[in-house]
Amino acid sequence: MVANQPKPDLSMQNKVAELTPQQYKVLCYLHEGLLNKQIAYELSISEATVKAHITAIFRKLEINNRTQAVLVASDLKLHMSSSQS
C-alpha cells in the first residue's frame, strides 16, 4: 500500500458528504482527470472559482493535493450520477 494514501472509511465518507454539491462535482471532475480550465468550462464558472472549490475540498477532506483527492474519489467510487445535487 502506498504511504499517505487515504483509506476509505466512514469518516472520509462523512467528510465527502459535507461537500457542497458544486464541490462534489469538482471532486468528480478531478477524478475524471480534468484540468481546472476544463472543470470551469463544464460547470460554467471561472477558473479562480474552481481553485477556490479545490482548496475547500482539500481543507474539508484534510488532504494536501489533487492526487490524494483522486484517490479518495476512487476509493469511495464517487461518480457524478451519485451527486448531491
Automatic annotation (TrEMBL):
Q: Which domain of life is it from?
A: Bacteria
Q: Which CDD domains match?
A: LuxR_C_like
Q: Which Gene3D superfamilies match?
A: Winged helix-like DNA-binding domain superfamily/Winged helix DNA-binding domain
Q: Using the record's annotation, list all stretches that form the HTH luxR-type domain.
A: 12-77
State the InterPro entries in the record: EvgA-like, Sig_transdc_resp-reg_C-effctor, Tscrpt_reg_LuxR_C, WH-like_DNA-bd_sf
Which PANTHER family does this chain map to? Answer: HTH-TYPE TRANSCRIPTIONAL REGULATOR YHJB-RELATED
From the Swiss-Prot or TrEMBL record, give the protein name: Response regulator transcription factor
**Which organism does this record belong to?**
Marinomonas rhodophyticola
The root-end lineage is: Bacteria, Pseudomonadati, Pseudomonadota, Gammaproteobacteria, Oceanospirillales
